[in-house]
Amino acid sequence: MQQQYEGYKGLADSLKSASALLNLEGKSQRHQDIITICNHLVNPSFHIAVFGPFNHGKSTLLNAILGNRTLPIDLIPTTGAAITVKYGSDLQTRIILVDGTEIYRSGTEVLQQFAILDGNRQMRKDVISVEVFCPHPFLETGVELLDLPGTNDRDEQDNLVREQLLSADLVIQLLDARKLMTLGERENLRDWLLDRGIKTVIFVANFINLLEPDEQKQVQNRLVFVAESFRAELPPGFSNLYRVDALPALRARLKGDVAAANSSGLAAFETALQNIVGILQPNRGSVRLPRVQAIASQIQLSLKAKIDHIAIEIKSFDDKQNTKIEIKQKAANLIYKGFAISVGELQDWLALPKLLTKYQAEAAVALAENKFKSWQTNTLKKDLTQLQLAVGKWLDQAYEFFHEERPQDLLIPFPSEPQVILPSKSSNTDDLSEPGSIAVGGGIGWLLGGPVGAAVVGSISYLLNKNIQKQDEQSATESYHQEVAKLCITAIEDYLSRFSTQGLLILTEYEQKAEKIICFELSQEPLEITNKHETLQRLQNGFNQLLQELEKVKILSNHQPYKEIPQSPNINRKYSPQTERVKTFLQKDPDIKQQHENTAKNTVTRVEFVSPPPKASPSPRPEELEAKFRDWELNEEIARMKAEMQTPGSQTGKQQNTTQSNKTPNQAQIDKITRAYDILGLQTNASQAEVKQAYRTLVKKWHPDLFVNQPQLLKQAQEKMHLVNEAYTILSEK
User: What's CA 149's distance to the chain center, in Å?
Assistant: First the structure.
């Protein structure tokens, strides 16, 4: 039995903890119920409470059972406190006051001072508990009797009675046969007993002896109906309805008149009561746990409502944060892709073999003609600047988007200009020569005029366009102009080599700096949300603990335990894209190209092409147009995400657009949509992905930049692109 009480102690502690989590008011009915049932769970005594409206004879019945005038009785409502009658070797009374004072008195006369209503029929405010110790054999078995104040008199008394009923293992509901089962009694039976899991109830009818014989028979029939309509959970074979004439029974007991006690119904009732208690007392859990189940169910519902409310608040915040983070992650990845591609293009351009192939010949000629500085500015610097700006613009995008660190400009300086020292002229008169025409200018160039200069330039072109190692070895010695040409070529090769080495080194360092710019902080969780997480965890732990304790005592629940909430470190972290560096041109790397095509397919941004004015420049190569189209896609995608970040309620806007798109279009709209499909060369049931792909194909086919030198086709392309853009816009918004 002791082990059973220890198990109940864990359940009682869980109920009290749950009450604390709900922040219930100390004086609230639910809080009082929880405290009462928790204390009762671990109480080894068996409690019998006498319950009913005032003046029904509750104290008189208990005095009859005890065989003396232990409890105060009168013609007016007297009991002003819950009086617990316990076993004691001598008749004594103990009063405990609010200030902690304990008052012990022999007998029960002190009850007239502390346990009855005052002149205004009010309960005393300073009394916590009233206990009477009585030497009765029934009480010696561990039974305690509870004399409750009468109901339907004062709200304060009703609240006390309602609270104390939860601590009763057996309830004796006293009925007045003269006004059987009033509306108030029926309401109390339902609200105070049935709905709270209190079903071990015995009905005792008093005052039947005051009725005429015919009335007694009618009342008896009504009592049977009342008893049968209430499903009492008593041991099998016992009735839940008894007749006791309380005052005659008390008088008979005081006189020792056994026959009169029997005729009052007291003896039969006492026998049944003792037998019922003898069966229920060893297994008090079966009586108490249904009440726990009723209260625990209410607590679980309240906890769950509170948990769900906080969980919704946290989820709403997390959804907003995750949406922002997702947009930033996508932006960071897109920016890094664009940056990596631009870096790859610049790396490829800086590769020495590429530099030599593209620039060595014209640079050597410019050097021979003393025009190197002009060539460096107008050709090499111009190409480098475009590539540097292409790299830097992505870091500018990152700074504008994430505000992490302002990027420095990518600057790749040029090496010192090449120096060539002319060789001495041979005395061979067969060489082309012009006396006095050779001079070293500042150590970096020279002037070659006349036939020799022309020959040197020609030799540069000849030597670079032929494989020198495979030249005919017909001549053992080179002509003077070929020797000078080789010096120019070698000087340019050295210049471009230094330029390549230095440029690649600077670019590598610049890439490392980019990691500090193309990133963003995953901001620390606000204190308010952290507190909500902690509150949610405490509530869920309390809910789960209560569920476990209920399972231990075999109380089933319809609820499932909450899963453990993973703990996330509440610290600032950075997100940096881990996209693999692109080291080759987009058009030469199928994997990277496919990545960007996939990105473009997922882009839903509307784009309007503005055709540039015709200009006298060569038509762009297909790879240049592809690179331009790729940059446009990345820029537009980033611009769209910026707009989403800056527009409040973007998700709501999307939902509204979705709702609007579901509206039935009129015939004019249907015609426009059908025409748009026709312009893109698609069937009317084409998917959005097919629309996107058709649009891309037509843009690459009719982009005005392809026809800059063909005025007639240029105009046609501009008109075509206007129609294509308009069609794409219609189908994107439908």
Answer: 52
Q: How far apart are CA 297 and CA 40, in angstroms?
A: 18
Helix (H, G, I), strand (E, B) or coil at 152: coil
Tokens of 729: 């816009």
Please state, in angstroms and rounded to a whole number, the distance separating the CA atoms of residues 637 and 607.
10
Give the burial class of 169: count Cβ atoms within 10 A of its Cβ; 0-12 exposed, 13-18 middle, 19 or more buried.
buried
**Residue 58, H or E segment:** helix 58-66
Q: What are the pLDDT digits (tens) for 383-433?
A: 999 999 999 888 888 888 888 777 788 899 999 999 888 777 665 544 444
Taking a C-beta distance cutoff of 8 angstroms, is the pair 174, 79 a contact?
no
Structure confidence by residue, pLDDT tens digits, 662-693? 444 567 778 888 888 889 888 888 887 788 88
Q: Enter the tokens of residue 102.
A: 């304990």
Where on the phi/psi map is residue 307: left (φ > 0), alpha (ψ -120 to 50), or beta?
Answer: alpha
SS3 500: helix
Backbone φ, ψ for residue 235 (5° rounding): -60, 150
Q: What is the mean pLDDT of the chain?
A: 78
- Token match 């922002």: residue? 324
HSE-up (13 A, CA, CB side) for residue 349: 19
Provide the 3-class DSSP secondary structure of residue 474: coil
Nearest to 679 by CA among 667, 666, 691, 664: 691
Instruction: Name the nearest CA neighbour of 401 among 481, 544, 517, 492.
Output: 517
> What does the DSSP assignment read for 602-668?
T--------PPPP-SSPPPPHHHHHHHHHHHHHHHHHHHHHHHHHSTTHHHHHHHHHHHHTSPP-HH
pTM: 0.59
Residues pairing with 127 in the sheet: 97
Q: State the Cα–Cα distance between residues 51 and 58, nearest whole angstrom.
A: 7
Q: What angle do CA 637, 638, 644 make, to 5 degrees?
A: 95
Token reading at 700: 């690459």
